[in-house]
Fold this protein.
Amino acid sequence: MAVNKDMFHAQTTPSNQLFNTSCKVLDGVSKLKERNAELEKKVEELKYTVATLETDIAMAQSWRTTTPPVGADLLIETGEGFWRVRFNNQEKVDYLVNEGKIKRWIPYPKTIG
């Protein structure tokens, strides 16, 4: 059977359009997958940020009257003022709290230095 130009054109045009459409769809899917990966990464970063903020807020909502943690940078209030300290000895911390020398404390703000 002989194929003339009109028949060839009629057969190739729809499939060419389908091919172009499928290429566009595949490109769109690839872009969506890339964007999805970016958003998932962003969600993980935000989860970490939220967890950090929740911890910071929990620690800084009010001055603590309990025993401060050993080894942490602290801002303490004593009868003589405010001090930035780091205690490395639990017995010393317990003594200072029990003797009333430490009235209140909070973790030392990271933004100050």
